[in-house]
Amino acid sequence: MAHDQxxxxxxxxLKHVETLQIQPVQPAASPLRRRESAMKDSxxxxxxxxxxxxxxxxxxxxxxxxxxxxFRGPSRKNSLxxxxxxxxxxxxxxxxxxxxxxxxxxxxxxxxxxxxxxxxWGWWHPxxxxxxxxxFGVVAASGHHVFYASLHGTxxxxxxxxxxxxxxxxxxxxxxxxxxxxxxxRQQMWxxxxxxxxxxxxxxxxxxxxxxxxxxxWESLKTAKVAMFxxxxxxxxxxTVILTPGTLxxxxxxxxxxxxxxxxxxxxxxxxxxxxxxxxxxxGGLIERSLSLFNTTSFNDRxxxxxxxxxxxxxxxxxxxxxxxxxxxxxxxxxxxxxICGAGWNCSYEISFVGPGYKCFEYLGNxxxxxxxxSKKDIIPQGxxxxxxxxxxxxxxxxxxxxxxxxxxxxxxPWSPYLGAFRTEPIIWIGYATLKDxxxxxxxxxxxxxxxxxxxxxxxSCIHHTTEYTVNFNYSSGLQKxxxxxxxxxxxxxxxxxxxxxxxxxxxxxxxxxxxxxDYLFPQNTNKYRLTAAYHSLGLQLRNQLNGTxxxxxxxxxxxxxxxxxxxxxxxxxxxPIPNLMQGVQNLYEDIIISLLSNPQFLVVAWAANPSNRSxxxxxGPSWPCQKSRNLNIFHxxxxxxxxxxxxxxxxxxxxxxxxxxxxxxxxxxxxKNRFSAIVAATRGPDxxxxxxxxxxxxxxxxxxxxxxxxxxxxRQGVGERRGSYVGSGGDDGLGEMFYRCEVx
Length: 745
Description:
Blueprint: E1 19-23, H1 30-41, E2 45-52, E3 80-85, E4 92-93, E5 96-97, H2 117-120, H3 127-151, H4 159-195, E6 198-199, H5 200-208, H6 218-223, H7 225-236, H8 238-243, E7 248-262, E8 265-267, H9 271-274, E9 282-283, E10 286-287, E11 292-296, E12 308-313, H10 315-327, H11 336-341, E13 346-362, E14 385-390, E15 428-435, E16 455-476, E17 479-492, E18 497-498, E19 514-515, H12 526-546, E20 548-552, E21 558-562, H13 581-594, E22 605-607, E23 610-614, E24 623-637, H14 639-666, H15 676-682, E25 709-715, E26 722-723, E27 737-741
Antiparallel strand pairs: 1-2, 2-3, 4-5, 6-25, 7-24, 8-22, 9-10, 11-12, 13-16, 13-24, 14-15, 14-20, 15-16, 16-17, 18-19, 20-21, 22-23, 25-26, 25-27
C-alpha cells in the first residue's frame, strides 16, 4: 500500500480531493499476483486509487465586495491510496436488504461496537421506523374510534375534557402517520437526487419543502413529482386534527328508562259503597271525603226507621269540577310531577279503573218525535239558539220531604217508600249549530243572506254508564297531561226510562216518573245506593256545566245563559260550540273524573299498585311501572365522518410508505437520513468548491448560482460523471455518494 509522508491517504479530508483515477493493479510482483488471484477467487477486488491534489499554484479566490468568502481551498498534498473493499451481492425484500453489504474491517477505523442501536440488534433496520409510525398511527386512529364509540349516546358530561382526549388521539394519529410519510419523503428525496440532475434552487426547494411552502420551484414540481406529492400529504395532514374531533358532537336528546315510579294513584269507587259519614275514616290525621252528601231520617242509631238518603254533591267535588271546567284540563295535585317522577325527570304511566261515563249518540231525527225535549227548528238558522242543552230531565230533587236540619222528616213514619229513591239518571240533550266553513266569518244578523246557508245543525243525547277507563298520564317539565286511551261502556247506571210530563204523586217532593218502577234504587239497598250516589254526584257536575243556552238576537248578538260558555266546549269567537261537540262533552266529563286525583282526601283515590288501599295524602306510596325520561345533552359520534377523514389519510400514508420502500430499493437498500453528518458527507465533493457560495445580507446567493446543475452519485474521474451501481458505503472506489457539478462554467 502506498503511504503519504503525513499518514495514510484514507484519513485525508475528502474536500481536498480533485480527481479520482482508478488504475489496474500491475501484475509484476508475483506475490501481488498471487494475492490478486486469490482475492479474485474469493470474490474480492484490489484497486489502486491515484488522488491528485489541486494545483497548488492556483490562486485563491478573493472575497467579493459585499459577500462572505465561502470558498474551500486545498491544504494537504496528494497521495496515492490503495483501498481494499470486500462486498457480497445484495438482494432486497419488502423489509429492506436481505443480505446487507459486508465490508472488510478497516484497521484505521475506530470500532463502533456497542455504540449504535443497529449493532445492538442485528435484525433492526431503520426502515422499520417507517412501518412502526404507520402502524402506530392506525392504532391511534382506531383508539380514537373506540373512545368516541364508547361515548356515543351517553350523557355529555365533562365535555371539554373528553374533547381534549379526542383531540390528543387525533394529534397522535396524525403525527404518527405523517412521521411515516416524512421518512418516505426523505427516501424519495435522495432517490430523486440519484436519478436526476437538478439546479441548486430545486435541491433547496426539495430539502426545505416540508418546513417552508414558499420555496416551491417549478423544476422541483416537474422533476420530483413523487417527493412533492409526499410533501403535499404532510402539508394537508393538519386537517385530521381539525376534522376528526368534530365528529363527536353534543345533541339534545331524551333519555328514557323503563322503571318504577312512586306515589302513583288511581281511582277506586268501591269505598263509596261502604262509607258511613257517622264513622269517618282518617288517614294521616285527615278525614277521608265522600263525593256525596246524605241526609238521615234519624240520629238515633237504634231507630228501626232510620236510613240515610242522598241530598247532593260534596263541596270539594264541586270545586274540583268547576276548576276543571274553567282551566279546560284536569287539575293536578301540587308538585305531583316531583312526587311521582322525581326532581329533574319527566315520566309517563297508565292506570285503569272503573267509574262513570257518558255515552253519547248522534240524534238523527228532527226532534219532533217526542223523544227530545226540543227540535232542530229551535237551532239556528231556523231558530235563535246556537247552543241548547237540556240536562235536567229526571234530575233527583235535593228536597225530598219537609225536613228539619240534617234531613230528618218533620212528619213521623211511615214515610213514602219512594223517599230518597233514585228513579232515573237524567239524559243530556244538546242541540247546536256550527259554521260549515270554520274559516268563514260569522253572518252579521238574521237579515244577512248568508245566515240561511252558513250553519250546520246537530243534535245528540248522552246516557250515564258505568265505564272502564285506561288513562295515560304524562308529566313533562312539571306539567300534567292526562289522555284517555281507551274507554269501554259497560252498562247504564240506571236502567229506567224517564217519563216526561208525568207527575209522580208518590208522597215525595221529587216529581220524577220513570219506568219500570221496580228498577228504582232505594236507600235501603245501602251499598249500591251509595255507589250510585257517587256516580250521580259526578254526573251532576257535568250536567250543571252543560245546562243552558246561547241565544242570538235578531242583530246576531249572542246571549249566554250557560256555564258551558266558560268551558272548552264553546268557541269564544262567535260563541258557537266546537265542531265535534259530542266528543267534547265526553272528554269534559273524563277531565272532571281525572281531577279527583288532585285531592287525595277523596275516598276514591287509592294507590295504583294496590287499589284496595286508599292513599290519603301520604307521599311514600308503593311503586308502579312507568317510563322515566329527561331532556339532556348526549354525545353523538359520526362514525362515517371520522373514518372518511382517517381513511383518506391512511390511504395516503400507505401510498407514501410504498413510495418510500421503492425509494429505498432505488437507493440500493440504504435507508437515507437527513442528519448533519449525512449532508456533510453528501457535499464533501471537491467539485463543489468551485461554486460561488457567497451570500448577501439577505442570504441570497450571487445571480445565476442557483441555476447550477448538480448530480448525486459516486464520483469518478472527470467532471459530471457518476456511477449508477452502489456497493458498500464507499463504493468500489472508496469515496461513496456525493453531490457534484454536472457542467463547468
